[in-house]
Q: What sequence folds into this?
C-alpha cells in the first residue's frame, strides 16, 4: 500500500462556494505583484540590470510622459471597445473569435468612405457616412456566422476565424488598389492635406474622443447586458438553449441579434481607428487586438467595468514590456516573454479564486 | 449484535460543507454476505456518507475500519484497493467504447489483452446472473445495461464491498427484479452490499438490515424482517406522516385540450408517439403512466410547442368554447394566443430553470417580456420569488442564490411555484416529485390538488404507481408510444396498470 494512505494529512483542493469581491481582487493583486517580481528576476537573471530599474521602466512605459500616457489611454480604449463587443456574444456562449476581422472590415469601410467621398461631400457628412458604413460592415461580418449558426448550427469558432482572413485579404486588395504613391504598397495618410473625414480633435488631446467613446460604450454594454430584455434573453440562451426555447425565446433570433451588435461595436472600433487616430489603413491595423480582447473579456468575467481594469492591465504591461526591451537593448521577443509571464500569473490566479487549498490533519 | 467482524465499520463520521453539516457523528456497520439499505430523505446525507467510504470525500473527523483495520481513504483508487466499489447514480462510462473496454479502462494489469478480459467478464456475468454482451458499445445500451456494466466493472476490480446509489431509480419494475436477483447472488457469494434508496418497498424486499439517516444524523438500525413501512417512514421523516393523498372530486370537468392522432418522431427518425388520442379536462388530474421513455416527454413537449409534430391535432378549448390549434406553434406563439399553459418539465435545471441564475432571475423567465420599454422589471419577479419562498417554505440562503445550489426538493418548489403563479388553465408536470423527499412530495401533491380545485386541467406524468392511483382522476397508460389504456383512477388497480404498461395486449 502506498505511503499516503497511511497518514491522514495532505493537501486537498476544495471548490469555493463563493468568494467576496475584495478577496478576489486581493488574490489578483497578489498575482500582479508576483508577476512583476518574476519579470524583474527574469530580466535581472538574463541581463543583470537592476530589478528596481526594470520595474520603474515598466511603469514608465505608460506614465513617463504625458504623450505616453495618452498613447496608453488610446490603446486601452481600443482594446476595451473590442472586448466590450465580445462580451455579449461570449455571455451567450457564442465563441466569436472574429473580432479582428470585424474591426478590419470596419476600418476598410471607413477608409473607403474617406477616400471616395472625402473632399466631394461636406466633411460632417463624410464622417457620418463613414460611421454608418463601418458599423454596418462590422455588423454584417458578425451576422454571417450568426445566421449560419442559427440556421444550420455551423461551428462559430471556425467560421468567425475564417471571416478574419477574408476581411484581412479584402483590406490587402484595396490597399493595393488605393496605394499612394504608386508602387509603395501603402495607402499612406488619407486626405493628409484636407483632413477630410478626419474626426475632430477635442482641445489638444488627439486621443480623448476615443476614450470618451469607449466610456460611453462601456456604460451602454453594461446596461444592455444587465438591465435590458435583450441582455436577459442572451444570458438565458447562453446558459441553456432548452430553457430558452421552453420559455418561448426564439434562440436563432437572439443569436443573430447579439452578433449583429457585437460586430457593429467592432465596426465602430475600426471607424475610431481609421477616422480618429491612424488616418490610414494597413492589414495589421487591428494588430491582434481582436484576439487579445477575448482574453480581456474572459478575465473580467464579461463584466464591462471589470474589463476597464483588465484591458488597462494588459495595455500597461505590454507598453512596459516594450519599454524594457528598447531601454535595455533587448529585442521584441523579450517583451513578449514579460507579457506572457504576466498573463500566466493573471490567468493562473483564477484557480485560487475558484478553489482553495486546505491542509487536512487527521484527528488521531 | 453478533460477534462477527464487520466488513466496514464507520465510526463517528462528520462531514461539513461550509456551514451545512452533511453527516453528524454517523456510525454504521456492514457485514459480509448481507445487504444493508441506507434509507433517508433527500439531503439526509446518505450519498455523502458513501462518498467518504468510496474515497470521493474525506471526512472531517471520525474513523473508518475495513475488516477491523483502520484505513484512510483518500481517493477512489484507495477505496478500490481496499475492495470498495461504488456505482453512482450518474454512470461514468465512455460512450464510444465497448463494455469490455470500459471495464478495463484505467487498470494496469500488465498485458493489454481484451480477449482475456472479456472472458473474465463473461465468467463474472455467469457467476452472478448478469446479462451482458462484453463487445456491445455503450451508446447502444439501455440504462439498465449501462448499470450492469458499472456493477461488473466493480466486480472485475475485485470489489467485495459494493455501494449502489439509488440503483432502481432508472429501472423498470422488471429490470429492478432482475437487479435484485443478481444482488441476492452476490450476497450468497459473501459480498457486502449497501444500497442507498428512499423506496420503502424495495428496502423490505431486498435488504437484511436498514440504517436510517435524518438530516445528517444516524437515527436507527432495524432488522428488515422485523419492521414495516410505517415504522421506517416515521423514523425517516422524524414524525408520523399520513400516507394517503387527498383526491377531491372533480367539479364541472370539461375538455380543455383534445389530442387526436398525434404522431411524433425523434431527430433520428425513431417513432416516439404513435397515433395518440385523448383529452385533458379542466378541474381534473390526468395521470400518465408508463415505463420511462414510452413517449411521456415527447407528449408533454408536443403540447407545450417544443416538439416537432409529424401528424395529428392538438386543440385548445377556452372557457367560452373557442377552439385554437396548437400544432406547429412555438411556446411564444401559444402564449400570444392567450393559452395559459404551464409546464413543469422533467429536466428541471436543464429546461425549466437556469441553474446559474438566482431565484429572482428564474422567476423572471416567465414574465420578463411584460412591461413596456427595452428594460426588464426586476421588482415583480423579486416579489414573486419572495412569495414562493415563503408559501412553499423553500430552504434558501436568499433570493440571490443561484438555484443550482439548492437541493432537489427546493429547486422543484421554485419551478412549480413559478409555473403556478402565472394562473394557468393547463398545468403539465413531468415527474414532479422525482428525487423529492416525502414532505416536499406532499407539498407538490397539495399544490396540484389546489390547482385542480381552481378548475385547472392538470397533467401528472409519474413513475410511482401508488401515487398515480391515489392522486389521478383518470390514468392514461402509454406503452411504446401508443395509448394502451385510459383508466378511472378510483377503480383501477396496480396490477391492471402494470399490465398495460408492459403490453398493449392488456387493452384488447
A:
Amino acid at each position: 500500500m502506498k505511503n499516503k494512505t497511511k497518514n491522514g494529512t495532505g493537501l486537498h483542493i476544495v471548490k469555493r462556494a463563493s468568494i467576496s469581491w475584495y478577496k478576489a481582487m486581493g488574490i489578483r493583486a497578489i498575482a500582479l505583484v508576483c508577476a512583476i517580481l518574476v519579470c524583474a528576476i527574469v530580466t535581472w537573471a538574463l541581463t543583470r540590470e537592476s530589478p528596481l530599474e526594470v520595474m520603474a521602466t515598466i511603469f514608465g512605459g505608460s506614465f513617463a510622459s504625458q504623450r505616453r500616457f495618452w498613447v496608453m489611454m488610446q490603446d486601452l480604449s481600443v482594446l476595451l471597445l473590442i472586448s466590450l463587443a465580445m462580451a455579449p456574444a461570449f455571455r451567450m456562449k457564442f465563441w466569436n473569435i472574429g473580432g479582428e476581422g470585424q474591426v478590419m472590415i470596419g476600418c476598410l469601410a471607413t477608409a473607403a468612405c474617406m477616400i471616395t467621398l472625402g473632399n466631394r461631400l461636406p466633411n460632417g457628412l463624410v464622417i457620418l457616412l463613414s460611421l454608418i458604413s463601418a458599423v454596418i460592415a462590422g455588423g454584417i461580418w458578425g451576422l454571417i456566422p450568426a445566421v449560419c449558426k442559427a440556421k444550420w448550427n455551423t461551428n462559430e469558432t471556425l467560421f468567425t476565424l475564417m471571416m478574419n482572413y477574408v476581411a484581412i485579404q479584402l483590406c490587402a486588395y484595396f490597399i493595393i488598389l488605393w496605394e499612394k504613391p504608386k508602387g509603395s504598397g501603402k495607402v499612406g495618410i488619407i486626405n493628409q492635406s484636407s483632413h477630410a473625414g478626419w474626426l475632430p480633435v477635442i482641445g489638444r488631446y488627439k486621443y480623448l474622443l476615443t476614450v470618451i467613446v469607449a466610456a460611453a460604450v462601456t456604460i451602454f454594454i453594461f446596461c444592455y447586458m444587465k438591465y435590458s430584455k435583450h441582455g436577459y434573453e442572451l444570458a438565458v440562451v447562453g446558459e441553456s438553449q432548452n430553457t430558452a426555447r421552453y420559455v418561448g425565446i426564439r434562440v436563432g433570433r437572439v443569436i443573430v441579434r447579439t452578433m449583429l451588435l457585437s460586430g457593429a461595436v467592432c465596426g465602430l472600433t475600426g471607424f475610431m481607428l481609421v477616422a480618429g487616430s491612424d488616418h490610414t489603413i494597413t492589414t495589421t491595423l487591428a494588430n491582434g487586438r481582436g484576439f487579445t480582447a477575448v482574453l480581456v473579456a474572459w478575465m473580467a468575467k464579461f463584466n464591462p467595468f471589470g474589463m476597464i481594469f483588465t484591458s488597462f492591465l494588459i495595455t500597461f504591461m505590454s507598453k512596459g514590456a516594450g519599454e524594457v526591451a528598447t531601454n535595455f537593448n533587448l529585442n521584441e521577443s523579450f517583451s513578449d516573454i514579460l507579457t506572457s509571464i504576466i498573463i500566466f500569473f493573471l490567468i493562473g490566479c483564477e484557480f485560487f479564486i475558484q478553489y482553495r487549498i486546505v491542509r487536512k490533519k487527521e484527528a488521531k | 449484535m453478533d460477534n462477527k467482524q464487520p466488513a466496514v465499520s464507520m465510526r463517528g463520521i462528520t462531514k461539513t460543507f461550509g456551514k451545512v453539516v452533511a453527516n453528524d457523528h454517523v456510525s454504521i456497520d456492514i457485514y459480509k454476505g448481507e445487504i444493508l439499505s441506507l434509507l433517508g430523505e433527500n439531503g439526509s446525507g446518505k450519498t455523502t456518507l458513501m462518498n467518504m467510504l468510496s474515497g470521493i470525500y474525506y471526512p472531517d473527523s471520525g474513523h473508518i475500519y475495513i475488516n477491523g483495520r483502520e484505513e484512510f481513504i483518500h481517493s477512489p483508487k484507495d477505496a478500490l484497493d481496499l475492495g470498495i466499489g461504488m456505482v453512482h447514480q450518474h454512470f461514468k462510462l465512455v460512450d464510444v467504447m465497448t463494455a469490455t473496454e470500459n471495464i478495463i479502462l484505467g487498470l494496469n494489469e500488465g498485458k493489454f489483452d481484451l480477449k482475456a478480459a472479456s472472458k473474465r467478464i463473461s465468467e463474472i456475468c455467469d457467476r452472478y446472473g448478469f446479462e451482458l454482451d462484453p463487445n456491445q458499445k455503450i451508446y447502444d445500451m439501455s440504462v439498465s445495461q449501462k448499470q450492469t456494466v458499472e456493477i461488473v466493472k466493480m466486480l472485475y476490480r475485485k470489489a467485495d464491498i459494493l455501494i449502489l446509489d439509488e440503483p432502481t431509480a432508472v429501472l423498470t419494475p422488471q429490470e429492478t427484479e432482475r437487479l435484485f436477483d443478481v444482488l441476492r447472488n452476490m450476497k450468497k457469494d459473501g459480498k457486502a452490499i449497501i444500497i442507498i434508496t428512499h423506496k420503502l418497498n424495495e428496502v423490505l424486499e431486498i435488504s437484511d438490515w436498514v440504517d436510517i439517516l435524518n438530516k445528517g444524523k444516524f437515527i436507527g438500525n432495524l432488522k428488515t424482517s422485523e419492521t414495516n413501512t410505517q415504522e421506517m417512514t416515521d423514523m425517516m421523516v422524524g414524525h408520523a406522516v399520513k400516507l394517503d393523498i387527498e383526491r377531491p372530486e372533480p367539479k364541472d370537468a370539461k375538455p380543455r385540450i383534445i389530442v387526436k392522432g398525434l404522431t411524433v418522431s425523434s431527430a433520428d427518425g425513431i417513432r416516439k408517439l404513435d397515433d395518440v388520442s385523448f383529452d385533458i379536462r379542466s378541474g381534473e388530474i390526468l395521470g400518465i403512466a408508463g415505463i420511462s421513455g414510452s413517449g411521456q416527454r415527447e407528449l408533454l413537449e408536443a403540447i407545450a410547442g417544443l416538439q416537432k409534430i409529424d401528424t395529428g391535432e392538438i386543440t385548445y378549448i377556452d372557457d367560452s368554447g373557442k377552439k385554437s390549434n396548437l400544432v406547429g406553434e412555438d411556446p411564444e406563439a401559444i402564449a400570444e394566443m392567450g393559452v395559459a399553459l404551464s409546464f413543469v418539465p422533467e429536466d428541471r435545471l436543464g429546461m425549466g430553470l437556469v441553474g446559474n441564475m438566482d431565484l429572482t432571475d428564474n422567476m423572471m423567465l416567465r414574465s420578463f417580456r411584460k412591461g413596456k420599454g427595452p428594460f426588464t422589471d426586476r421588482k415583480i419577479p423579486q416579489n414573486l420569488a419572495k412569495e414562493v419562498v415563503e408559501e412553499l417554505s423553500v430552504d434558501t440562503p436568499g433570493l440571490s442564490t443561484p438555484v443550482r445550489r439548492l437541493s432537489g426538493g427546493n429547486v422543484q418548489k421554485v419551478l412549480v411555484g413559478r409555473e403556478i403563479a402565472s394562473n394557468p388553465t393547463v398545468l403539465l408536470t413531468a415527474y414532479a416529485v422525482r428525487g423529492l423527499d416525502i414532505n416536499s412530495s406532499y407539498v407538490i401533491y397539495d399544490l396540484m390538488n389546489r390547482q385542480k380545485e381552481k378548475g385547472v386541467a392538470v397533467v401528472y406524468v409519474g413513475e410511482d404507481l401508488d401515487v398515480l392511483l391515489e392522486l389521478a382522476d383518470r390514468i392514461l397508460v402509454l406503452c411504446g408510444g401508443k395509448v394502451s389504456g385510459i383508466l378511472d383512477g378510483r377503480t383501477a388497480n396496480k396490477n391492471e396498470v402494470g399490465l398495460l404498461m408492459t403490453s398493449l395486449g392488456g387493452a384488447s
Remarks:
- Residues 418 and 456 of chain B are 15 Å apart (CA to CA).
- Residues 255-340+424-507 of chain B form a domain with the Rossmann fold fold (CATH 3.40.50.300).
- The radius of gyration of chain B is 24 Å.
- The longest helix of chain B spans residues 173-188.
